[in-house]
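Severity: low
Component: inverse-folding endpoint
Summary: output formatting inconsistent between runs
Steps to reproduce: submit the following structure tokens with default settings.
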């Protein structure tokens, strides 16, 4: 088992450039994410075929394939424009996951309000928001519908999110919310556990992150299909590298020891790190996985 590296570590480039950069650092295990230049589905098939033939193992995540017109991907959207844009992107992601041999496509759970991306990459949310109940119902309906398009050999996984210090805009931030969502969806829907996101949620919402992880492992272990690894200050999703003293390494040891069938994808998302720091993160996680 080898850790995957997210192409988001080499954002603002073409998909080909990002894959090549990831391969140089982490070998043949790569999660394709964002932000990358727009390319049509047919163009991306050519790219994926090239690297698949070279032995690359892919996982697909969130804003891949990149939309021609930028928007905030949101399964919980009430407006038809965002709903239809999200549906189109996910359908194309399923198609490309199947084509690339990716076992998974992971996506954020959704948001309570409309949003746009700021210049720093963080979302700016509208003051008008849905209730949590309505947003959750929207996500459940969206997933139930989109599963009709999912290839049998691809798992659709939903990622936990986090609130901002000032206001709650995201679904799926606590164990209880993950439990509620997972229990409302078919068993085939998996979990993408983002440890960095959980760190922020636990800090802002005031719960014990280790207790939350213990409950997830006890009750939903078989549905955890991927784990995102990156560090932050507990306030912002900084996507920093992990180091020797990272709390996440202990968590990974526990999870990997239970992952007997080696079914979980472990992926580093250190977007704001030097290549040396990324390589160090890769080596630290690989010591646990191998």
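Observed output (run 2 of 3):
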């Amino acid at each position: 088992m080898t850790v995957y590296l997210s192409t988001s570590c080499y954002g603002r480039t073409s998909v080909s450039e990002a894959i090549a950069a990831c391969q140089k650092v982490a070998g043949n295990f790569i999660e394709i994410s964002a932000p990358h230049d727009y390319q049509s589905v047919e163009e991306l098939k050519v790219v994926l075929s090239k690297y698949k033939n070279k032995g690359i193992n892919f996982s697909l995540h969130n804003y891949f394939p990149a939309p021609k017109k930028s928007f905030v991907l949101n399964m919980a959207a009430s407006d038809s424009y965002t709903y239809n844009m999200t549906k189109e992107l996910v359908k194309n992601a399923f198609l490309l996951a199947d084509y690339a041999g990716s076992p998974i496509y992971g996506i954020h759970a959704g948001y309570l309000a409309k949003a746009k991306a700021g210049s720093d990459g963080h979302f700016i949310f509208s003051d008008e928001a849905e209730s949590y109940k309505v947003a959750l119902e929207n996500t459940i309906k969206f997933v139930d519908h989109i599963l009709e398009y999912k290839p049998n050999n691809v798992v659709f996984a939903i990622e936990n999110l986090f609130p901002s210090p000032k206001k709650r805009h995201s679904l799926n931030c606590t164990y209880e919310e993950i439990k509620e969502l997972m229990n409302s969806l078919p068993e085939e829907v998996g979990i993408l556990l983002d440890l960095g996101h959980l760190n922020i949620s636990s800090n802002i919402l005031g719960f014990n992150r280790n207790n939350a992880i213990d409950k997830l492992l006890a009750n939903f272990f078989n549905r955890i299909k991927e784990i995102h690894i990156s560090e932050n200050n507990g306030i912002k999703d900084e996507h920093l590298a992990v180091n020797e003293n990272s709390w996440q390494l202990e968590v990974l040891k526990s999870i990997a020891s239970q992952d007997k069938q080696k079914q979980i994808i472990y992926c580093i998302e250190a977007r704001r790190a030097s290549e040396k720091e990324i390589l160090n993160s890769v080596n630290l996680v690989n010591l646990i996985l191998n």
